[in-house]
Amino acid sequence: MEEAVKMQTPKPNVENQEYWQAAGRGVLVIKRCIDCGEAHHYPRAICPFCHSANTEWQEVAGTGVIHTYTVMRRERPSTVTAYVTLDEGPIMLTNIVDCDVDALRIGMHVKVRFADADEGIRVPVFSPR
Amino acid sequence: MTIRDKAYIAGIYEHPTRKAPDKSLAQLHAEVAIGAVADAGLTMADVDGFFCDNDVPGLGPISLVEYLGLDVRHVDTTETGGSAPIVHISHAAQAIASGKCSVALITLAGRPRSAGLSANPPPNWDVPELPFEYPYRSSVLNQYAMVAMRHMHEYGTTPEQLAWVKVAASHHAQHNTHAMLRDVVSVENVLQSPMIADPLHRLDCCVVSDGGGAIVVVSPEIARSLSRPLIKVRGAGEAIRDLRGGRANILESGGVKSGAIAFEEAGVRPADVKYASLYDSFTITVIVQLEDLGFCEKGLGGRFVADGRLISGVGRLPVNTDGGGLCNNHPGNRGGMTKVLEAVRQLRGEAHPAVQVPNCDLALAHGTGGWLASRHGSATVILERE
Ligand SMILES: [Zn+2]
After folding, report:
1. Among A73, A99, B58, B333, which is most exposed with the fewest C-beta within 10 angstroms?
2. Distance of CA B242 from the midpoint of ligand 1 (Å)
């Protein structure tokens, strides 16, 4: 088991601040287009598929599988960068934490949790479930 | 309007330095510019079009045109990362074909090795994807590594196959006196080098070098007036690839589109290409490009490169005979320029005799700039010796 590293702190803007507010409550949200029905990530005010401005935030369980990953061996402790395929469809860049890095596999089931950054910001990360 | 046969590469220059602690960025741009213009047999006063990317210091082309003392009537600064110089050849050919200029100068320079890796600018939070990548320490390295990991999972590509790309580059680099790494390495050497980001070892990664290069693209009339080999721009394509809202296949690069456009315009097929310069920021980059440009089926890139098949005189497709970014030069962390320079040397018959492809009359140069697994610019150019 490796200890999670301190997350680098993002700065929310007017378009994505709800995402970070939800993360602060321990909730993962994604954007879904009301017009075409498609979910996407990272979140945008304008749907990248049909370009409708009729998009809404959707709370999700934060469950998915590892699509691909890498272990950054030069960092201490090693960090794991990954794309996780959310059950809703989109892949999402993240870190995998609290795991045995040598036991990670593509297709492994993971669940969201939230790691602390500075300025009260919390960042979604994933762990094996 | 097609650019086919409308423009020629008349001059090239690759800066010999790989470390430039005592030269400014503008100075490097000037040295490569003067070198390429002289190679063409022209003077700086003949240059009427200037092309560069965001790596130039100051106000883009404004500062550089002043520094170089140019008198131009056309400028272009399309930024597609490391593939930009290849896009610039296409754009220069378009400008020449439409009469906007007749002697186009393209420069690239950088000094990341002297500047050190800590010279990163502060984050710009207006970049829409940044807040969703920055917390996770997303980087060039881990983005390409994730493509390699998924490629191995989906297609059975092996670490040994990845290593063969470096082995081939090192076989070529031994003949290049300017190359940063000149020792021939084996598959075992690559696999025994430290793991940097699974599954990429240190020797799966390119060099970090200072320096640069320049290209002069001219009209057919000017090309024929110069006593240089006639290297014609036969076709070109460009593409931007991204994550498409989280729905993209990360194993498919922009080369699928830029390559198809370039081959269509050139009226040739991958099997016609005698020599290829392929972007080699990492070994996986070459494997993905071979597949996406149509040199082999998707998923078979690992098998295509194994057993020395990229080595000139040995394999069916010689690739990066200057040693590539993996062993020779990756100036300013942007490899597109050196890709074109070696393709032109091959077409002129000016590559090192040990790596020169016999009767090399059709060559391809391709670049992938940015991050392979997330967003990148791809550019392909097909060049022919007349
Ligand atoms: Zn939509």
Report:
1. B58
2. 17
Cα(B244)–Cα(B309) distance, rounded to whole angstroms?
Answer: 34
pLDDT tens for B211-232 read: 999 999 999 999 999 999 999 9
pTM over the 0.95 mark: yes
Neighbours of A5 (CB within 10 A): 16
CB B2, CB B94: distance < 8 Å: no
**Which residue(s) pair with B140 in the sheet?**
none
Q: What whole-number distance in Å separates Cα of residue B84 and Cα of residue B138?
A: 22
Q: Mind giving me the DSSP string for B317-351?
A: S-B-TT-IIIII--BTT--HHHHHHHHHHHHHT-S
Q: Which of B134, B142, B374 sits opposite A10 (nearest CB)?
A: B134
Strand-strand pairing, B74-76 and B231-241: unpaired
DSSP at B373: T
Q: Which of residues 239-258 of B touch A (CB under 8 A)?
A: 243-248, 250
- Whether the CB-CB separation of B75 and B48 falls below 8 Å is answered with no
Q: Do A79 and B141 touch (CB under 8 A)?
A: no
Tokens encoding B300: 């078979």
